[in-house]
Amino acid sequence: MRRLLTALAATAATVAALLAVPAAAHAESNGGVRILPLGDSITDGFNVPGGYRINLWRALAAAGHPADFVGSQFNGPADLPDHDHEGHPGWRIDQVDASAAAWVSSTAPRSVLVHLGTNDVIQGYDLGNAPARLSALIDHVRAAAPGADVFVASIIPLADAGREAAANAFNATIPGIVNAKGTRVHFVDMHAALNTGDLADGVHPARAGYDKMAARWASALAAVPGSAGDDGAPATLPSGSYVSLRATTACCTTRYVRHMNGLGYTEAVSSGSDQLLKQDATWRVVPGLAGGCYSLQSRNYPAYYLRHQNGRAKISADDGTALMRADATWCARTSPGGVRLASWNFPGSYLRHINAELWLATPGGGAAQDNAGSLVPDITWAVAAPWAP
After folding, report:
1. Which of 13, 99, 204, 310 has its C-alpha lying 20 to 30 A from 293's C-alpha?
2. pLDDT tens-digit profile of 248-266?
3. Sequence-separated (6 or more) residues with CB below 8 Å from residue 355
4. Which residue ranges form the domains of the chain, and what is each CATH number?
């Protein structure tokens, strides 16, 4: 019996150890702008794991901002590209504030999304001082990340009339608190974005309610330039010139876009590389075959152009068809450290390298090449001097 108890205790300890693995071990990063969702169970996504973060990530990606959510917590569906967050079910403002500075310091967010106070109201916890607690939390977040934009939301409606009255009283103080914090702190009227019909249980949103929250957060970020990262403005390429396109992902900065046996790849190129490789990795920038932006003409097969087809990047001859010409047209967009090459006929999709192959990737999409890991650097290319002028 003692051996059995000892074995059970050891098993329990092993399970506990596995469950106690820090969430940071699961941290996902795609190189995008770091955004910290900070709050309670509504940030966590009670009833709908992932909550507002599901559609917020997609909305930002669709606008050209693949976000890197950060935080010590991790949850959400498989089709949410980034599961990190800092939502703590049941926690009040003071409980979150006790660790907020450490979380912010460790994740270095560009933007922080704060939705807190619901549990203060539900627990009836010293409501008269709840605004002061929120004010202190904002100060601590700002001190830990002085360059960040902090978005502070009013709490969403509550179905119980008494709780809703308390929530309204608390919410009424938030704009004044925010206005006193300077230009990097912004008020988000989340209460107005939902109604009690959007709630699953009188407190937490149903999926439609979380989607409304996502839309409101996305609008707030869009109103503050830079808070969701680089805007991906149109970029100019040297039309008529030969260039080589170098990968910017940390693993692969000696690798360049090339064609081989008709398909697109990246490969390391150096001064000692053979002439064929240097030619394969050189492209002439020409006016877009579809009538705008740019096309990339092969240096050693001048009748051929870089295009996408069924998701894969390859070279094809210009056969005069509208589809081929659209597939072979790329629009350059600014990106930290280089440019993104956005598809002419699939806006929001970009030329990406993954496992040394070139694909058309759609942030938030369901294909293997769309996965969030290192997405931003993988779709960012440095325009370099041609290997075969």
Report:
1. 310
2. 999 999 999 999 999 999 9
3. none
4. 25-222 (3.40.50.1110), 242-384 (2.80.10.50)
